[in-house]
Amino acid sequence: MTRILASDGMDKAAVAQLEKAGYEVVEQFYEPEELKEKVKEFDALVVRSATKVREPIIDAAAQAGRLQLIIRGGVGMDNIDVEYAREKGITVANTPAASSASVAELTIAHMFSLARFVYMANVTMREGKWEKKAYKGTELCGKTLGLIGMGRIARETASRARGLGMHVLYTNRSGDLPDLPYEWKTMEDLLKESDYVSLHIPAKKDSPALLDAEKIAMMKEGAYLINTARGVLVDSNALCDALDSGHLAGAALDVFPEEPCLDERLLHHPKISLTPHIGASTKEAQKRIGEETVKIIRGMFD
Question: Looking at residue 30, what is its pLDDT?
Answer without folding.
Answer: 96
